[in-house]
Amino acid sequence: MFEYLGFLVLGTLVFAAFFLGVLTGGIGLVVRPLLILWGVPPQVAIGSTRIASLGTRWVGLGELERHKKVNWKRGLLFFAPASAGGFFGAYVTGILDDEVLKIFIAVTLVAAAFLFARQKNLGTKPSTHVPTLFRKALGFVLIVFATALGSITGGAGMLVSYALIACYGETYITAAATRKVMGMGAGMA
């Protein structure tokens, strides 16, 4: 009986994380530690979350496109680099020890929380600055790094959104929509 109640609680928490994560990103950053705390091996938690997040990407992309929030040009431009980052992250996940993965996920969770807590108004309105070549190159590197890291730890959505906002001047909503396009390849890694 207790086991069924536990699955109900875990299922409710996972549903809530995916529901909120469609816009905010960071689904894996919440769900992976929950699954690991539940006793699921890290590699299984990572793979399970990646499969489940593909569904939310499609649903979220459709709804955000309906509201004309998707920057298709930028999303498709970053599709291949994000996919490469995702494949690299998946490869690293396969060779890392369980305990190392747990520590890596915990450190990333704390770092992501700190990063976003520092800049509370980031992405609330479109930036008026024109991105410089340096800022665009930095954004490219950050997106590839974020997709690789996110493939291992989760949280790629939040990190990619941060790069799109900080380097390209997108709002949080357009960044969330655009990263769903580029995340299709990274999510299949």
Describe, in plain words, how this protein is organized in 3D.
There is one protein chain. The chain is mainly α. It is built from nine helices and no strands. The radius of gyration is 16 Å and the shape is globular.
- Give the averaged pLDDT, no decimals: 81
Rg over C-alpha atoms, rounded to the nearest angstrom: 16 Å
Structural class: mainly alpha
Main sheet?
A: none
| Element order: H for helix, E for strand | HHHHHHHHH
Number of helices: 9
Q: In one word, what is the shape?
A: globular
End-to-end separation in angstroms reads 37 Å
User: How much strand?
Assistant: under 5%
Low-confidence stretches: none
Instruction: Please estimate the helix content.
Output: over 70%
- The beta-strand count equals 0
How would you describe this structure in keywords?
189 residues, mainly alpha, globular
The gist of it:
The chain is mainly α and 189 residues long. It has helices at 2-24, 27-37, 42-66, 72-77, 79-95, 98-118, 133-153, 156-168, 172-187. The longest helix has 25 residues, at 42-66.
Secondary-structure topology with pairs:
Blueprint: H1 2-24, H2 27-37, H3 42-66, H4 72-77, H5 79-95, H6 98-118, H7 133-153, H8 156-168, H9 172-187
